[in-house]
Amino acid sequence: MNRRLWWKLCATLVLGMLALFWLISHLTWETEEAMSFIAESHQRTLRSYGAQAEALYNAGNEQALSEWLRSVQEQENTWAAVIQSDLTPIAGSTFSQRFTEGFGLGRDVSWKIHLYFAENPTMDLPFSDGRTHFVIQLPERMRPGNYWSPSRLLLQVVLPFAVLLLVCLLLYRHLMHPLRRLELATRRFSEGDYSARVGADLGARKDELAGLARAFDGMAERTQQLIEHQRQRLSDMSHELRTPLTRIEMAVSLAEQQQGDQLLLERIRGECNGMRQLVEDALTLSWLENESPVLRDESLDLTELVDSIVDDARFEYPEHKLNVQLPASARLSNSSHRALGQAIENVVRNALDHTPRGGSVQVSLVERSGVWLLSVADCGAGVPGDMLERIFQPFFRLSGGSNEGRSGFGLGLALARRQVQATGGSLSASNGAQGGLVIEMRLPRGGLQT
């Protein structure tokens, strides 16, 4: 299995952590070293104290030397003294020149001062005679490393945080770049751009994410082929069905002219019209589902549209009653006259088909909160509550309960819902309080429902 991404992440994290630890250690040591020496100005002050003490000592005025030492201790809030060192070797031992030259009762002002010691060290400024020394405990104001604590916090907390944040950002960008490309391609594909691919955007990348991109491209290629084949099959089916239907209709027309069995001929013509309508509805439904078109380029008067559909329905269903409540005008923008008209016609026909002979269908149009609510209620048997959504599925049929032997909803309601959705509205069903099915169509006046 290809584990390039695994090795990339491991190498980045391991080598990055090693480099970070070394950098922190090195910078900490360098910073501590730089902060461990007394400032030059303070060194000059201490040497000046040593020179003044030596001058007073050489003058032989111990009283003046004592008062001066007292003033230095008060001024610097520390301890200071002038001390003689009389070293006497015994048992025949001798001092080496290095020991004699390097001997001191404290630390030289140029030496390193360890920052971790709690007490300030004693500084030694020897006189020229080599055996007298001015010693002083380093005053607090002269102690180096005043910024060591914040510097150590900066080096051991802030610096690692910043470096790790940078590493995380780089890893995030490295991982998210192909995922973002994949997301964009998936969104384009879902919106109907079946040519969307990812592999070309990733260049020569060959890790697991590149494999995912190749898998997506393969899936997209296969899906595009299936959709194109489906479209071609639908087109072929439409052509093949229209041809025999046309021949049948021509034969029926000839038979009618020759005074054949009129009842049989009418039955054949009705079946032909039903087949033709089925083909047209199936093609329209397939187009709406596959292409997801947005049909919002017209403005219309909903009252006029519903009124014309009701007039046609009254002519075709003279044995039914249609009770209509419409406003004087119902302007609707960003919609489609054809799609909406077919949807309303399907809903009204469905209600009439499932209303017993002599029954009534209620059609009402009202405005509620900027939305036109078109309600069509029949007085049929209704629909079980758990099937109210299923009646909008293509070719879904209920058994029994229909008028004149009809047994279901076919494509009508499925097509109507998708047409209404394409215009920005919605379609829902419920059972009426007095029985029967109520179809409600919500159509925003602006053509887009939020």
UniProtKB/TrEMBL annotation:
Q: Quick one: signal sequence residues? A: none
Where found, per UniProt? Answer: Membrane
Annotated Histidine kinase domain ranges read 236-447
Q: Name one Pfam family in it.
A: HAMP
Q: Which reaction does it catalyse?
A: ATP + protein L-histidine = ADP + protein N-phospho-L-histidine
Q: Which residues cross the membrane?
A: 5-24, 153-172
- If you read the UniProt record, what top EC class would you report for this enzyme, in one word? transferase
Q: What is this protein called?
A: histidine kinase
According to the entry, what is the taxonomic lineage of the organism? Bacteria, Pseudomonadati, Pseudomonadota, Gammaproteobacteria, Pseudomonadales
Per the record, the gene is pirS_1
